[in-house]
Amino acid sequence: MAERPVAGSGQPDILTRKSDHLTIITDGRGRQQSRTTGFEAVHFVHNALPDLDFAAIDTATSLFGRRLAAPLLVSAMTGGPPEAQAINAAIAEACQALRLPLAVGSQRIALEGRGDAGLRGLRRCAPDVPILANLGAVQLNCDMGIDDCRRAVDMLQADALILHLNPLQEAIQPAGDRNFAGLLDRIAAVCSALPVPVGVKEVGAGLSAQTGLRLIEAGARLIDVAGLGGTSWARVEGERGDQALRDLAAPFADWGIPTAQAVADMAAALQPGVTLVASGGVRDGLDVARAIRLGADLAGQAAGALPAACAGVEALCAHLEQVIAQLRIAMFCTGSADLAALRQAPLLPPLEIKPGGA
């Protein structure tokens, strides 16, 4: 399916594409189906005598100098299409109410002056919580530079800028931006020039520890593995096209590093002072607990929170409160008074069932 061009430019209509993405994900047509996050293989040892007062369990943490009520990030979902304005506002208001950080989707549309979907007003809605700006890293090889990165941060009065990496999506997307050559040096230049921390994330295929370490050496202060098991952008792009595009995308629907594996590998190699985020198929508070136990500082949820965000502030608050309540239950039943204790909670070894009960 060819994309509709922007009038007078000959370029694909990014507004149409972003609107299609929202529709496909909201409809559930972009979910990973054949492989999982790997979190289901992580089992805590149940503590039947936790010696804790449930009410005293502390889920608090911090990000970029701001105190958070829980290690839960409402991750990047929406950038600049018009229908995203209400979603962005609901996310900001819910995160302010619950003291949680939020990350916006790509700000490319807003920087190009084709609509900001209320992005410029988010800091008024969320004055006290971290807001993470977002641009596609590959745009640094196209028509955007350090000044655009500064503009993205200033637009939100953001605490950090996240550059997202999406080679699989760009390779499948008609007219995708596929020149990733020399991109690490450009990311390093942004890290050096910006007055706020710079983070890097994948979008659903995972970041390996090797790649993560290269990014940290380049100056990244946050790594979001965004692994396999949630939204498949190969499927999303395939859903936007004709049968030929769906056939092109089909073998890559399960491509990537499962989120749990990516988190564990990255945590083992992590350097001090770098925030590790586990996103990609985080379903509930138990997955948040598993992510923290594997070494993440925060867990991010995007598609899992999108239906509630579309329904408004009250629905999103209720959803996020349930996720946090599930995290607290996992902490209670592992005898973990705080997140530091949860990181040391014992895990069951893999279950081995021998034939014949031997």
Automatic annotation (TrEMBL):
Keywords on record: Cytoplasm, Flavoprotein, FMN, Isomerase, Isoprene biosynthesis, Magnesium, Metal-binding, NADP
Catalytic activity, EC: 5.3.3.2
Sequence ranges assigned to domain FMN-dependent dehydrogenase in this UniProt record: 33-107, 184-345
GO molecular function terms attached to this record: FMN binding; isopentenyl-diphosphate delta-isomerase activity; magnesium ion binding; NADPH binding; oxidoreductase activity
Catalytic activity: isopentenyl diphosphate = dimethylallyl diphosphate
Short name of any one Pfam family annotated for the protein: FMN_dh
GO cellular component: cytoplasm
GO BP of this protein: isoprenoid biosynthetic process
Subcellular location: Cytoplasm
Record bears the keyword Magnesium: yes
Required cofactor(s): Mg(2+); NADPH; FMN
Primary localisation category: cytoplasm
Annotated Gene3D superfamilies: Aldolase class I
Role according to the record: Involved in the biosynthesis of isoprenoids. Catalyzes the 1,3-allylic rearrangement of the homoallylic substrate isopentenyl (IPP) to its allylic isomer, dimethylallyl diphosphate (DMAPP).
Family to which the UniProt record says this protein belongs: Belongs to the IPP isomerase type 2 family.
Protein name according to UniProt: Isopentenyl-diphosphate delta-isomerase
Phylogenetic classification of the source organism: Bacteria, Pseudomonadati, Pseudomonadota, Alphaproteobacteria, Rhodobacterales
